[in-house]
Amino acid sequence: MASLRHNADPQAAYLDAARACILDVGWRRTTLTEVARRAGVSRMTIYRAWPDMPAVLGDLMTREWGEVVIRAVAQADAALDEKATAADRIVAEVVGTTRALRDNELFVRIVELDPELLLPYLLTRRGRSQEAIAGHTAGRLREGQADGSVRKGDPVAIARALLLAAHGFVLSAHTMVDDEVGEDDLDRELEHLVRSVVAG
Q1: Which pLDDT belongs to residue 6?
Q2: Residues contacting residue 52 through CB under 8 Å, at least 6 positions apart
Q3: How would you class 25 by CB atoms within 10 Å of its CB: exposed for 0-12, middle for 13-18, buried for 19 or more?
Q4: Which residue among 25, 152, 154, 165 is the one 20 to 30 A from 114 at the CA level?
Q5: Rounded to the nearest 10 degrees, what angle do helices 53-78 and 32-39 cross at?
Q6: Which residue segments constitute the domains of the chain, with CATH numbers given?
């Protein structure tokens, strides 16, 4: 997951400030001026880093989702024993990452206040984080094809199909939860779904 890693740089504090703004007041009410104020720098300092708030948001989401995925993958892998196959790792990583993204406070805040921000990544184009996640999953699928735990097929296409399936469990799981079905029940079904996709 090296492609998802966030390396410390001078802009990190500015992204922290933007994150705090969005958590407090939402995307629509967050301005570059407010980000600068919270970061303790001039407005021009922020403008030199990003031309507008959409650019800030793109970098913030790439950093945020990347860090969430890295932690979720590490936790999923740590919970498996040494006999785990690549298919086992894919299942654990997809389910763990889906749960972590769904519970992330920035993600929850965006869904609550500004869900339209996510639409381009669902309807128009893939984002940098989606590309990195799909790339990591395709690598895992190749490992599984090598150890025999994953069916034959184009690993890139399979990875993208898994990403499409996971979108629903991240974005819409709450619409399927009630007194009969809980999030844990849905996550168990996601486990079965992912395993059936990778094992064939």
Answers
A1: 43
A2: 32
A3: middle
A4: 165
A5: 60
A6: 9-51 (1.10.10.60), 61-199 (1.10.357.10)
Question: What is the residue-wise DSSP string for the chain?
Answer: -GGG-----TTHHHHHHHHHHHHHH-STT--HHHHHHHHTS-HHHHHHH-SSHHHHHHHHHHHHHHHHHHHHHHHHHHTS-TT--HHHHHHHHHHHHHHHHHH-HHHHHHHHH-GGGGHIIIII---HHHHHHHHHHHHHHHHHHHHTSS-SS-HHHHHHHHHHHHHHHHHSGGGG-SSS--HHHHHHHHHHHHHHHHH-
Q: What is the pLDDT of residues 25-67, one digit of tens each?
A: 999 999 999 999 999 999 999 999 999 999 999 999 999 999 9
CA distance 44 to 48: 6
Q: What is the pTM of this model?
A: 0.88
Q: Using 50, 70 and 90 to split pLDDT, how confident is the model at 8?
A: low
Tell me which residue has tokens 């945020």.
Answer: 64
**Confidence category of residue 114, pLDDT binned at 50, 70, 90:** very high
